[in-house]
Amino acid sequence: MFSGLSAAVGVLAATYILLLAALRSSQDAEEPPSISYSIPFITPMLNMAAKGTKFHRLMRSNDCCQLDWCQQGDLTSDHGYLMSFPKYVHAALSTGPGLGVMNRRSIQVIAKSLNALARQGGATVDMFTWIRHELLLASTEAVYGPRNPFRDPAMEEAWKSFKAREYMVKVWEQYFDERSFEQGSELIKARVKINDDFQISRKETARIELGGSQAILSNTLPGTFWVAYHIFSDPVALKDLREALSKGVYTDDNGVRTVDFSHVKSSCPILLSTFKETMRVHSLSTATCIAMEDYKLNNEYLLKKGSTVMMPATVQHTNRDVWGSTVDDFMHKRLVREPGVKGPNPIAFRGFGGGTTLCPGRHFASTEILMFSALLVLRFDLYPVTGKWVAPPMTKSPLVNALPIPDWDFQVEMRPRDDGKPWNVCFSGYDKDMEIVAEDIESVAPILAH
Ligand code: HEM
């Protein structure tokens, strides 16, 4: 018994010494200090598991800069599938006819559904569940086309639990075998093309689409919920937005209203700011890149060639030096950019990542979220059935999400603000990109390119 215990203590001590030696030998003295390494490599993992979505924020207050256990192999010379991916999908998601078709389709789906809800006089819904369903249908109709597998409620159920993966693979196999993607968006066609070019079979393509559909849905759906939550729980934001958005609504002689989405995109900076402020407050993403050469950050910290640099958005989004004393407050107009007014540095907003891994889906996602929010604000009043707006916590949300899933749902009563007649939607032709991230801002993009 005693010798068994001594052996176990011996093994633990030897493991500890080995881990410490591995840490020390792989780290240059000029590199940023290691974080919470009472047990090297293990403590950060345990902390991350225990503290979940609060992990990075807490680490920042420890004055730490590096997750030493993130060092990886050499990705700087990879010309394979993953590194080629952007070349294929970025064109399909950039401003142009392909993206235009996707945007229009998703908005039509949303408008039709809200028309039906207004006609029936509103409803009481679980807010997160309802928004998730609306955005899931709108996004997947836009991407997968008329043979969208998510039209079958069984597919939505499977996606929600993510447990019925083999069932979903079978559905995707049928979708690709029957060449249904040919009637879908440029995006889904591009994703099939890269797989074909890399000689990936249709069976594997079906499996890969499990991940592809995650990228399309996993952030847009909770993101839309949080935007709606912040708008409707704040009477000032709601009033400001209604005033601004109603300028883009036209009523014809028969009393039929039309929302011009070009107005929402081009002339409603408060809505874009509300969306970005929601992302500032809630983002969980961690941008990751590889140092291509040795680099001295701030002339102080060495980033060694080949090492992985991880930049959690939550740390940047809660930096008091950047956002000022109101950093902990939600301010819907904080990110309105006005000529001659010095606002926060646009580079500080990292909701969609940045640099080479900047989210290519940001224009599609932002357009969809803004248009849904605009229609909801214009057409409905929302009342929580408990009588009070209480923000659900999000401690259980998976860290792989860039935007968190609320820990619990709650009911809201939706009451139409009008006579329930259908509203039309139109685009009067504005096709410029919105200034979502620094890379989209004409005066900032060239600085970032250097
Ligand atoms: C509000 C919704 C969304 C948020 C917050 C979001 C956030 C992000 C973030 C933070 C990254 C960068 C990850 C990194 O730096 O490693 C990313 C990458 C990516 N996103 Fe999104 N995303 C959203 C919607 C979408 C949509 C709708 C699509 C597709 C239609 C999409 C496709 C992608 C792809 C393909 C990448 C990988 C880019 C690359 O590494 O080249 N995203 N997204």
TrEMBL record:
The record's Pfam families line, in alphabetical order, gives: p450
Q: Does the keyword Mitochondrion apply?
A: no
Keyword annotations of the record: Heme, Iron, Metal-binding, Monooxygenase, Oxidoreductase, Signal
- Give the residue range of the signal peptide: 1-29
MF terms (GO), sorted A to Z:
heme binding; iron ion binding; monooxygenase activity; oxidoreductase activity, acting on paired donors, with incorporation or reduction of molecular oxygen
The record's annotation in CDD domains points to:
CYP7_CYP8-like
Its family? Belongs to the cytochrome P450 family.
Protein name (Swiss-Prot/TrEMBL):
Cholesterol 7-alpha-monooxygenase
Q: Which organism is it from?
A: Xylaria grammica
